[in-house]
Amino acid sequence: MHVLLCPDSFKDALSAQDAADAMARGIQRALPEAHTQTCPMADGGEGSLEALIMATGAERRTAKVQDALGRPATATWGWLADERTAYIELAEASGLQQLTPAERDARTTTTYGVGELFAEALDAGAEKALLLLGGSATNDAGAGMLAALGAKLLDADGNALKPGGAALAELKTLDISGLDPRLAALQVEAAVDVDNPLLGERGATAVFGPQKGANPEVVKELDAALGHFADVSAKVLGQDDRDMAGAGAAGGMGFAARAFMGATLKPGIEMIMEQAGMAERLAKADLVITGEGKLDGQSMSGKTPIGVSRAAKAAGKPVVVLAGALGDGWHACHDEGVTAAFALADGPITLEDAMARTAELLTDRCDSIARLWHAAG
């Protein structure tokens, strides 16, 4: 029996790797002769860089960068030397979780540190970069990143704009002649888990701005500022990507990645599975077990368990999903390749207790799954 264990993290409880290890203990406890393979997964959001590093054996590197408020910070990135590929997670430099609630200000936060990470990757000789866009504290449409890479964003007086999305309202001149020339040869793929455009009711600011500290008045201000940035960009580039699905990801970073780097935008889970060699792993598996904190109707939009299940279905492999909770609409997962889904709790339990016992519960459920599989076989 060959079991492939590829969960996402269980937020605030276990990392994806720890979850996979807990699953493996359960399989081995029931069937010591079984072969287990752990492959932690993510969908482009929190934990994606770690999942990529663990799944591919990439080198973990660090760089000195600016955080979303311009303060000195240390950010981690991944380097796969054989493939000359860099893994860059936006949240490492410009992440929301690095700021206290009082510090979150969508008007002034910047992606400058992300540009610094790209510079590090280029210095290392990167020919390809995977950009992970989850967990952003920013709403500057990637303007900070462009500035760090050599672009000049100037106001009517020829002064450099202040950091942040609000300052884009004052943009008069966008000069990209100084952009790092190495970017032209860099193949960029950006992991997105949303299909929002840059502007409007479904845009970056209206949908995601409030969690970054934007009240309704600020949302209007920022949406207009990003619209002006899109206008100026279109004139400079001769193309307009504001309405592209995913342009609104990470405060408009999807827009910048596509417009200025020629990035391909794709679902994060697909990108990470490709890097992890999921097709080869599935070919060897008899059973696949995946999971994350919650499985519900929203999971169908590209969350890890569904992405894994779709790939397993195509390979003709059965999939079991273990989730902290099964929410409204979870039954739809059966149409996406899920053979069976189970909640972890073994009885009435508080959320606090469930989180504290997540590893134990994963082990117990996988023990039961292995015993049932053995009996059925």
From TrEMBL:
It comes from Vreelandella subglaciescola. Pfam families: Gly_kinase (PF02595). One of its GO terms (biological process) is organic acid phosphorylation. GO terms for molecular function: glycerate kinase activity. Belongs to the glycerate kinase type-1 family. This is Glycerate kinase. The keyword Methyltransferase does not apply. Keywords: Kinase, Transferase. The keyword Disulfide bond does not apply.
